[in-house]
């Protein structure tokens, strides 16, 4: 009874903080039931991310001006950055997979940045999205590894530089770490974004206290700037790890 009274009083005073409400998936056109074909707020913001990518790469570069516009300059800068990353990490043989890596980076980047827009929805804070992206990379790299190297792809798990007695043990460890890749790949991205957005919501909730408002505004602004950096860094980390995994497949990496 006492707990209920405290909760009610807190909600009536406008001080109730529910940081996880921003991650709830809701049908876009009413109702409560969600099926595989239901259009939700997540669907909307994923579509907006795709439209932003299209606007940047297609509309922004359609003129191909010698003196590029700002949009064309940004598109060319991102293109060159990701192309150099793929070439440096995977080697010349991995450049043919650049379009996929570029698409992956841009989707995660725009999804992360759009999540910082007030009243928006952060699609990459959900494991359903990040796990799907990570599994696409994991399965694609594994299949590609066997296609290019055959059974020799399994050689990456055999640490030939280690003493013979330790090689079977290390092989098991390497195999486990390989299958953990999609888990760590997805949790790192979703966990960082979810935690940051929840912290912003909690601190912003204290803005209702007049005395603390200036401090709260400053704290939210600082964390918001940090989250902006995190959005870019996490897209980069996800992409460069993809390149590292791709290198194992196209290069037939062996220890």
Question: Which helices and strands, and how do they pair?
Answer:
Elements: H1 2-12, H2 41-59, H3 70-90, H4 98-114, H5 127-149, H6 167-205, H7 213-250
Task: Characterise the protein shown here.
The chain is an all-alpha fold and 255 residues long. It has one domain. Helices cover 66% and strands 0% of the residues. The radius of gyration is 23 Å and the shape is globular.
Mean pLDDT over the full residue set: 85
Q: Summarize the amount of helix as a percent range.
A: 55-70%
Spans of 5+ residues with little confidence (pLDDT < 50)?
Answer: 1-14
**Intertermini distance:** 63 Å
> Would you report the number of β strands?
0
For the record, the count of structural domains works out to 1
What is the percentage of strand-forming residues? under 5%
Which class do the helix and strand fractions yield?
Answer: mainly alpha
How do the helices and strands follow one another from N- to C-terminus? HHHHHHH
The number of helices is 7
Major sheet: none
How is the quaternary structure best described? single chain
What gyration radius follows from the Cα positions, in whole Å?
23 Å
Shape: globular
Highlighted features:
disordered N terminus, 255 residues, 7 helices, mainly alpha, 66% helix, single chain
Concise overview:
By secondary structure, the chain is an all-alpha fold. The chain has helices spanning about 1-10, 40-60, 70-90, 100-115, 125-150, 165-205, 215-250.
């Amino acid at each position: 009874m006492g707990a209920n009274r405290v909760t009610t009083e807190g909600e009536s005073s406008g001080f109730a903080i529910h940081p996880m409400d921003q991650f709830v998936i809701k049908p876009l056109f009413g109702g409560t039931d969600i099926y595989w074909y239901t259009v939700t707020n997540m669907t909307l913001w994923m579509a907006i991310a795709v439209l932003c990518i299209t606007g940047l790469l297609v509309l922004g570069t359609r003129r191909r001006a010698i003196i590029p516009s700002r949009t064309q300059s940004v598109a060319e800068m991102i293109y060159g950055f990701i192309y150099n990353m793929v070439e440096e990490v995977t080697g010349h043989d991995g450049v043919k997979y650049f379009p996929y890596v570029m698409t992956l980076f841009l989707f995660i980047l725009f999804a992360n940045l759009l999540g910082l827009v007030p009243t928006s929805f952060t699609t990459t804070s959900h494991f359903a999205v990040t796990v799907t992206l990570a599994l696409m990379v994991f399965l694609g790299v594994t299949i590609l590894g066997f296609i290019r190297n055959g059974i020799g792809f399994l050689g990456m798990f055999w640490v030939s530089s280690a003493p013979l007695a330790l090689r079977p043990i290390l092989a098991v460890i390497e195999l486990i770490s390989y299958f953990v890749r999609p888990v760590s790949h997805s949790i790192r991205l979703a966990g960082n974004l979810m935690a940051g957005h929840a912290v912003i919501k909690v601190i912003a909730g204290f803005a209702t206290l007049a005395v603390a408002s200036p401090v709260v505004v400053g704290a939210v602004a600082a964390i918001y700037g940090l989250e902006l950096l995190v959005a870019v860094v996490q897209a980069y980390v996800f992409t460069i790890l993809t390149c590292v995994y791709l290198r194992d497949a196209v290069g037939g990496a062996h220890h």
